[in-house]
Specification:
The protein is α+β, with helices and mostly antiparallel strands and 512 residues long. Among the domains are: 53 residues; 135 residues, no CATH class. The chain is 36% helix and 21% strand. The strands form five sheets. A nine-stranded mixed β-sheet has the order 4-8-9-12-3-13-14-15-16, sandwiched between helices. A three-stranded antiparallel β-sheet has the order 7-6-17, with no helix packed on it. β14, α4 and β15 form a beta-alpha-beta unit.
Length: 512
């Protein structure tokens, strides 16, 4: 029952987006009878209609969507893949460019050991086979932010192949049923990033920033095993958590450290796959889900109206909520792949094949990297459920916010309150406090010890639950809560205290 439920829900999202798009084009509002909900840390989920969503708009045929992903993750390294240039997101334009990055004649690539180790660790965490011999290739194309006219990558023999990524989706009543799905990983390869083009339409100019040129990337190619935007977004989010747990990538999508290209097609079940389109450079899990769902329904509408699907590259306009054409492919683009002549084969070893007398600093030992693998997010979630008895959806929420799990565990250490009560306070009251102030967990003025002390007072019945929430309201800067406290002080002092002075003292105390 769970798989059809998820499939229906995915198609329901596509149906809703089509109705909304159709309504907006005809001057109408969103389709009636459609409700939605979203929990913190989870993708948008359509709840109605589930049954009709499996049919086309005309109600004649069923459609199946196929989604594959190419994910580019920036490797967490202080220097670039083939040069000693530093990597820094906020550096002034063209301030971190070596002669090799600028492709000056006579410069040669020097492989960054840290990037190779990051690729091996990521491959092991994703159940990949690590190739002990991998090759580098040149991928030729011409663009202003690629000064060499080619990109060094690993097309023919990548560093890791044949892996898998398991991801979980919460469904059912109150999101308490967890469906685990698996997507196959075709390969993981090392490659250079390109520079950045900044288009100034006002002056009709294109500005080039080469700071990003040559930065090391992990390209993770996911097989087309997904069927909707929600599945794709959940898989990407799980990969993001894994990369962050490994320390191989910060995977900050807002800074372009994790970018996704989606390949999408639709067909009737039992028939050959349809013509695919590629939606490029999606840098948000939410936009990824929206772009895929829109593109699925767009293709269904085109086919039902007797049109053909073009093999083209599209981008997602997040303001309009739709995909727009970038360029058509008209056959397979010829990148003229050729072996990279300036880089020898990359050789890796395990303990059994390690050459006698080899210098550990000169070789990369796969087994040694395997021993350094940390606890993965799926293992952490299972441990939280078993150790603290919390609900599955709460285990997802604790991991989805950076730093929240550590905060939760520190509160648990310092309080006698039940873990379920701590979970409720952290996910509802504390996160609401952060959201209102637009703060990250590590920027919070409320420390784990402060929240633990509050919960201890609550547990000993020194204060009531309402009073505890009032304390958080005051910390949150809620005017009503502060005004109430000012009123109490005025009452105790028989209206002799100056309200302005009281407010200044309270705000100073609350901000400390």
């Amino acid at each position: 029952m769970a798989a059809p439920m998820l499939r229906g829900r995915c198609l329901g999202r596509c149906w809703a987006l089509a109705c909304i798009d159709s309504g907006s084009r005809h001057g109408r509002g969103a389709a009636t009878g459609f409700t939605s909900s979203r929990k913190r840390g989870q993708s948008f989920v359509a709840q109605q209609p589930l049954l009709t969503a499996q049919k086309s708009r005309k109600g004649e045929h069923k459609w199946a969507a196929v989604v594959g992903l190419e994910i580019h993750a920036q490797i967490a390294s202080n220097s670039k893949l083939f040069s000693g240039s530093q990597v820094h997101f906020a550096a002034p334009p063209n301030s971190l460019v070596s002669f090799f990055d600028a492709s000056l004649p006579g410069t040669l690539p020097v492989l960054n050991r840290r990037c190779v180790e990051a690729a091996v660790m990521t491959g092991l965490a994703l159940n990949c086979h690590i190739n002990k011999k991998s090759l580098f290739d040149r991928k030729h194309y011409f663009y202003a932010d690629l000064p060499a006219g080619y990109q060094i990558t690993q097309q023919r023999l990548p560093i890791a192949v044949n892996g898998s990524l398991a991801y979980s989706v919460c469904v059912g009543k109150k999101w308490r049923q967890v469906i685990t799905k698996t997507v196959r990983i075709k390969q993981i390869q090392l490659e250079q990033d390109s520079g950045k083009s900044l288009h100034d339409e006002l002056r009709s100019q294109t500005l080039i920033d080469l700071n990003r040129a040559g930065v090391g990337l992990l390209e993770v190619v996911l097989e087309p095993d997904m069927s909707c935007g929600e599945e794709a977004a959940t898989a990407v989010r799980e990969l993001q958590l894994i990369l962050q747990a490994l320390g191989t990538s910060q995977a900050n999508m807002a800074e372009g450290q994790l970018r996704v290209d989606a390949n999408i097609s639709v067909h009737h079940p039992g028939e050959p796959l349809g013509v695919r389109t590629e939606v490029k450079n999606l840098n948000s899990a939410r936009f990824l889900a929206r772009a895929i769902d829109y593109e699925i329904q767009r293709q269904i509408n085109e086919l039902e109206n007797g049109c053909e699907i073009l093999n083209e590259t599209r981008s997602f306009d997040y303001k309009l909520g739709c995909t727009v054409p970038m360029r058509d492919k008209e056959g397979k683009q010829d990148y003229r792949f050729m072996p990279e002549p300036n880089l020898p084969p990359l050789l890796l070893y395990d303990t059994a094949s390690l050459p006698a007398g080899a210098d550990p600093q000169q070789v990369i030992n796969i087994d040694r990297i395997r021993e350094q693998l940390p606890e993965l997010p799926s293992e952490t979630r299972e441990k939280l459920i078993q150790q603290y008895g919390i609900l599955p959806e709460h285990s997802f929420a604790l991991l989805n916010e950076v730093g929240l799990l550590e905060f939760f565990q520190n509160v648990i250490k310092e309080t006698r309150a039940e873990p379920k009560k701590v979970t409720s306070w952290v996910l509802n009251i504390f996160l609401g406090f952060l959201k209102q102030r637009n703060l990250a967990v590590n920027e919070s003025p409320v420390t784990p010890s402060v929240l633990a002390e509050l919960l201890n007072l609550l547990d000993r019945k020194v204060i009531s639950s309402a009073a505890a929430k009032q304390v958080m309201d005051m910390k949150r800067g809620n005017p009503r809560a502060i005004n109430k406290l000012i009123g109490l002080v005025r009452k105790v002092t028989h209206n002799r205290a100056d309200p302005t002075v009281i407010k200044e003292i309270l705000e100073k105390q609350l901000s400390s």
